[in-house]
Every structure is written in structure tokens, then in C-alpha cells.
Design goal:
nucleotide-binding (chains A, B), 8 helices, six-stranded mixed β-sheet, homodimer, 2 domains, 331 residues, alpha/beta
């Protein structure tokens, strides 16, 4: 294993320090936790929007903490849910009196710990804690860590739209409504060329031959829908895009994310994006804005994912609202 | 070789299509070239700021095309300078009558072709073409493709400051002055854990053992200053930071970039950043803003670089001016 690490067991702790050290104007670390919150949290009278999950998916979620997006992000150990204690502390720290929305990716550990944390936070005096569960991965029903569909890159659009509406002073019912609207209209699917290598184990999470790829992979290396021979980028782009379109059934303007899994260079993502965009236009769709890069990764896995969000005027406006979150750039 | 590619010889062409397809509001492709320019180029009365170089370093340079940053970026074949013909076309397309500044990384092919292109553009009616050569890599004097020091990640700060000043309507002498100020005050140094694999060759550019790293590597895999055993991230961060500080000798507020070489996940870059920031503070410096991510890469190379820019009020203001360039986010 060749990684830029010190003691692998200290990776998450040191990473969280490194994140707040990079963005001290916008973020701070809650003492004795791996939780990062906005510097000005809680914002009085504003709905708090928080998220969290296992580490190894950076910039998810900490890179989306900032004005107009997330108030807080909790980092668990690598590919492991944050504890309910830490999630509860985050919810309390982001409660400005108008309630807190937890944006949860659909993994059993995350859902369970956020459930417990919500109860704990309410017992500690937070009036309203709401939860939305993102399940945008169209590849498979049920998976290694998941009942139902997995939550993946579409979560970032939930962060952005819910965070933008909360920043404008909307109440918690409205923020939940918009989060659910994004969840109802977004789909994603990924693939891998190589396995990731987790720091503590130091070995590939799964075996894959030099001439094989895995279609429909999860962001923790969970099995996809097909193990096939290495094919050209166009065939991969077509497969992912068509499966997402079949599910989302968009009709007009769409937001697009062509995401790298951590080990794939942007040059290759742009080659994939070329074909994704052609297919969208061929399907009568209008790509309104596109993000190409590493947004929700799987450590050093080589591979990509395609996310498509069916838009309306409200979602376009929210996606394009300003945010200081370092990992999200608007038009 | 496992990559998201179609025909490797078509990679740059397809990538350029994929870039303009991602950012159609801001960019367009010059016909029959691998040049990307601002959609509104040339901007009448504004100094044009352009750059270019071999492909394989994405998002450099095309990701920095946008209002307030670059007017144009030329993509050569992988690790190969763009042709003088294409560079000349770019200069002409970005000439709004106030002159054009070419920001060139110090590689012999780039410098030579930009020189020739400037002459060609002047013969074609561009009044003033100026050139600055960035040589921020403190690792080595003279290298495989370079006389003097190599130009690397500090180039992005040149793009930003020169582009911001040009956007405000400054004349070409002023834009050159600011570009030279950044060049005089910035230093970078990189390292690699693995070699990159070029698409057409399909094999590692250099051999490196499983327990070795290369300190001072170039962005094309050019030799660095030392081949050593794999050490901890802190030792790597200290080595790179201290060598850059020795060269730049900053005294107050600094801009920092902890850059990934393409195959290294952000989690590891943040571990490195933690130590970089501690060292800066220990040296009495004030990190004013920090960028952590993939900014100037070497295909799929695993590794990182550290860039430090000594700031004054003017440079801070220019770095923080708005830009629509997709790969650069201000505070």
C-alpha cells in the first residue's frame, strides 16, 4: 500500500484537522469529535442542514459545509457511520431554533445512527429534527450495507438545494419539501476500473482483473450489476447514462454530474462527459449545468459515476444560489 | 492499462469536446483546434490573458478559462506543447485590441512555440503580445524538458491575478507587472508515489518500487532530487514545505495550494495539509487562503505538491475577485 498517511488509524482525525485548517474562515471542528460545522453555527432562526457518513468519500461531506449549503458534516471512520453521539452533537450545534434537517445516504448504519441521534438531540432540547434519506443509485435494490437503493452522488444536489432554501429563511417543512423533491428527481450510477484500498487494511477491498470492470459499483466497493471486460469509455458512458435516464425519466432541463471515484484523472472524466452530453441532447434534454470532477469518491478507486437531476425553475434557482462551500461552484 | 478512454490517439480531441460540453455558458472551442476560449472572446478593450501546454494536467489550463481568469487555453497532445499555429490562433481570438499576455510554463517546447506564435499573431495584426514564463518549481535547475526551473502549480495563481486585473480594464503593462509579481513570489515542489501512465504508450513513464517515492518530481515524471523509501505524510509535507519556504522566504500572509497529482484522494491531501499549515504557523506566517485538490495533475500519478505564494494587499484582492472559471473557487 502506498499512501500519503501517517498512522493509518489516525487518518480521519488528521484529515478533519487538515480540512478545518484549509477553510478556517468557514469551518470549525466540534471539540472531541470528527464533526465540522460552519464557523457561525448555529445561525439563529435558520433551519440547520446537516449530513455525514463514513470517511473515504472526500470532498463529501465536509467540502460542502458553508453558507448556503451544509451547516455541519460528521466524518465516521473510513466506510463506517459516524456514531449517534457525534451526530447528536452536530445536530445540537447546528440548531438555530428553527429545526434541523439531516440528509442521510441510504446505508443501514447511517440511517440507524441518525435515527438515534435525532432522538438524543430532541431529548437535549432541539425542537424539531427531520430526516430525508437519499437513495439515488439506480444500479441495485439492496446491497452489502443497504436495504433498498444506495445513496450516492445525488446527495450533493440535495445538500445544495436544501441548504440554499434554508439560507433564505424557509421553514423546516419547506426545506424538507425541497430535499424530497430532489430525491424524487435524481438518479446516479457508477462503475469501477480498480478497487479502492482502505488505509487500515492496506489491501484492495475486492479483486478485479486487469481486463475487467465492474458496472453499478457502490462507493464502498459493494458489488454492482455486472462484471465485464474492459470496454471503451463511450460504451461505459452510454450504459450509465441510459440506466439513469430510464429511472429518472427527465423531460427538459437537467443538472449533470460526471464524478470521479478518486483515482481517475479529469481528462478521462471529460472524455466520458462528451458522450453523456451527446446522449442527453439526443434524448431531447437540455443540460442546464454540469459538474465534472471528484465530488463523492471511494478513496483511490479508479472509475466514475453519472448523476442526472430533472430540474424545474425552483431547483435551478437553488442550485445556482451562492455558497461558500469550498467543493461546490455555481455557474 | 486501465483507463476511461476510446481510441487513445483521440483522447485530447474528445476531452476538449467534453470540456466545452460541460461549460457551454462560458467556453467554446476554436474550429479545427484544441483551443478553448471564453464564449465572449475577444472582449473589446480588455487585455487578453491566455495559456496552454501539453494535456494530461487537467483541470490545467482549460478549467481556468472564464471571466476574471483566462481568455483562452490551448491543449497540446499529452505532455506535448501545442503547436505555434494553434497558439497564434488563440492569441488572435483573444485580442480585444488591448494586447494579449501569454502565461507560459517554463518548458522548452512551450516557450519556443509561444515565441513563434507571438510573432505570427503580430504579423496577423495583433498589436501587442507579451509573454511571462513561470518557473516556480524549486526542486531542480534544468530538467528533462527545461532549461532553468520548471513551471508548475504556481502558474494557476498567475492566471488568477493577471486575469482579475485584466478584467478590471488594466493595460497590458499593468497585467504583465502583476503576473511577474506572482512569479517572483511563488514556489512549488512536488513528489510522487507512483508513475503516471500515458494513454498512447499505455505503460508507466518511469519505474518506481513499491516501497519508494520520488521527491521533487516534475509533472511529466521528470526526475526529482531524491528517490527515497516510503515515509510518513508528515515527513513529506515537511520536506516540501520547508524547501518552498527556503526559496520564497515569505514574511506575512500566504496563499497555499496542496495539489493532488491526479491519482491521490483528497483525504490524503488533507492529511498533508494539516502539517503544511502547522509549519506555516510555526514559521510565523498567516495562511490567508488554501486550495486543496487536483489543480495541476500528471494524469493518474499518485502524489502531491505544495505551493506557497507570498502575498500583499494587491494579490489578495486579485485572488479573491470573482471568476466564472469552473476549477477555481474564491473564498
Amino acid at each position: 500500500m502506498k499512501k500519503l498517511l501517517n498512522d493509518p488509524s489516525e487518518m480521519v482525525d488528521e484529515m478533519v484537522d487538515g480540512i478545518v485548517a484549509a477553510y478556517p474562515d468557514h469551518t470549525r471542528r466540534l471539540d472531541d469529535t470528527n464533526v465540522i460545522v460552519r464557523n457561525d453555527a448555529p445561525v439563529s432562526g435558520k433551519v440547520g442542514v446537516v449530513s455525514g457518513g463514513g470517511s473515504g468519500h472526500e470532498p463529501t461531506h465536509a467540502g460542502f459545509v458553508g453558507e448556503g449549503m451544509l451547516d455541519g458534516a460528521a466524518a465516521g471512520e473510513v466506510f463506517t457511520s459516524p456514531t449517534a453521539d457525534e451526530l447528536s452533537e452536530m445536530i445540537q450545534a447546528c440548531d438555530g431554533g428553527a429545526g434541523v434537517l439531516c440528509v442521510v445516504k441510504n446505508y443501514e448504519g447511517d440511517v440507524m445512527n441518525f435515527d438515534t441521534a435525532a432522538e438524543m438531540a430532541e431529548l437535549s432540547g432541539v425542537d424539531t429534527v427531520e430526516q430525508v434519506v437519499v437513495n439515488d443509485d439506480v444500479a441495485v435494490e439492496d446491497s452489502t450495507y443497504t436495504s433498498g437503493r444506495r445513496g450516492v452522488q445525488g446527495t450533493i444536489f440535495v445538500h445544495k438545494c436544501a441548504g440554499a432554501l434554508a439560507e433564505r429563511g424557509a421553514d423546516i417543512e419547506e426545506v424538507v419539501r425541497v430535499a424530497e423533491k430532489v430525491i424524487d428527481n435524481v438518479g446516479s450510477m457508477g462503475m469501477a476500473l480498480t478497487s479502492c484500498v482502505t488505509p487500515e487494511k492496506g489491501e484492495p477491498t475486492f479483486d478485479i482483473d486487469d481486463d475487467e470492470i465492474e458496472i453499478g459499483i457502490g462507493i464502498h466497493g459493494e458489488p454492482g450489476v455486472e462484471r465485464t471486460e474492459l470496454v471503451e469509455a463511450d460504451a461505459i458512458a452510454e450504459r450509465l447514462t441510459n440506466e439513469v435516464l430510464d429511472d429518472v425519466q427527465p423531460s427538459g432541463e437537467v443538472a449533470v454530474m460526471v464524478n470521479g471515484m478518486g483515482g481517475t484523472p479529469q481528462s478521462e472524466l471529460f472524455v466520458v462527459n462528451r458522450t453523456v452530453q451527446e446522449l442527453l441532447v439526443d434524448n431531447g434534454l437540455a443540460p442546464w449545468n454540469t459538474w465534472v470532477g471528484n465530488y463523492m469518491t471511494s478513496l483511490d478507486m479508479a472509475g466514475c459515476s453519472v448523476t442526472i437531476l430533472d430540474l424545474d425553475e425552483e431547483l435551478m434557482e437553488l442550485l445556482d444560489s451562492p455558497t461558500t462551500a469550498p467543493a461546490f461552484k455555481t455557474k
